[in-house]
Design brief:
The protein is mainly α. The protein is 63% helix and 0% strand.
Length: 302
Amino acid sequence: MEEAMLSLPLSEVRRLLGAASGDAALLYLYLRAGAAPDGAAEALHLPVHRVDAALASLRQLGLWEAEKARPIVRSQPPTYSEADVLRATERGNDFSLLVGETQRRLGRVLSTEELKILLSMTDYLGLPAEVIGVLITYCIQRSRARGQTRAPSLRTIEKEAYRWADEGIDTLEEAAFYTQNQLQRQTEVRRIQARLQLTGRRLTAAEERYIRAWLDWGFGEEAIAMAYERTCLNTGGMKWPYCNSILRSWHEQGLHTAEEIETGDVRPAAVARPRRVPAGSAGQGELDDLERDALNRLLRQK
């Protein structure tokens, strides 16, 4: 009897290779084979904490969409009083420790209103204190990466906390992977900014969204620089929508590296990479030798 073949979307495999996690790669193949995550630790001979971390990585990469419990969010956040804050800090529990750690990291004593915001993150959003600690560190590092010298406000941190609660980032494993991934992406954005000769100022929100979208599509510095050069030659300067249309066209053709772009339009039809795939199989294709070797290395890490 012929064995069934497992077909993997190329776009998902590229995201997995970018994460450089052997455990995540192994768990991805295990789940795509139709197995349930509950038995992954025993089947893959991995400790439970490593499986949890790998599953968190797959969720953040958008490669696993299993339902996950969310904090119970009321229609309207409660209004906390000074007495509420006092009772919370007098218990000597995780919240009082969180207050001290937050003040240490921000370098100032929190006001009563700021303490109310911090209390809402634990009580209203349901985020564990240790996850909020990671969140605060992430917000500080993100501000520094954007060239800001002042520590972020509690309102800024609260806004990010709502995003984490909505996305179900409520464990240390998920928080660690999310922050690492986001800070790495911020570094990539800064490098692209330099390649586009946009130094000496901060990117606008719209400009940063463009660059992040290009990186999400799988383009690196060289490919984006090529699109930038063509944009300047054809329009006389950097026109973001024009540059975006060039990169979108390459993305739709499956051309993401400088080599693919340079040769993509002149390859013989018999050997060219398929640029259109049947309905229901979008993103599938063959891995090249470098990608196949990278996947094998990730699996050998196990």
